[in-house]
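Dear colleagues,

I hope this message finds you well. In preparation for our joint manuscript, I am sending the Transposase (Xaviernesmea oryzae) sequence together with its predicted structure, so that both groups work from identical material. I would be grateful if you could confirm receipt.
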Amino acid sequence: MMVRPLSLDLRTRIAAALNDGMTVRAAAERFGISAATAVRIRQLDRSDRGLMPAKIGGYVKPTLRGAAADAVRQRLQVKSDWTVRALSAELKSGGINVSHDTVWRFLRSEGKTFKKNADGKRAGSSEGGPVPDEMEDPSTSA
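The corresponding structure tokens are as follows:
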């Protein structure tokens, strides 16, 4: 069962009963609500913020849907070795304003993983020399 706010009509009747001198506990029992809810309704009524219920639910992380998701899939079919930041920059240049974190979450949800290279070996050295297959034995001298 989903939680839903009390109707504005019920909130108005509770506030009117409290303003007419009914105690919080008596109003709570009469209208079938908790005493804490009656207190909150009284506070809202006194603060002149109105009795409208607040939004239910919290922050939802942004996700790529629809045309933006299709654009990412198309770009990955054309070129599969994107970095997340490069893909985010490419999307921004195409008019889709999206952060790299949103792109990363989308790729994870699609089951895409990124490896350093296809062989699973160490990446090459920055000087461009060959990469040793295994560590050299320090006891042997050259």
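For the figure legend, we might mention the following. Helices lie at 8-19, 24-31, 35-46, 66-78, 84-93, 100-109. Residues 66-78 form the longest helix (13 residues).

With kind regards,
E.M.
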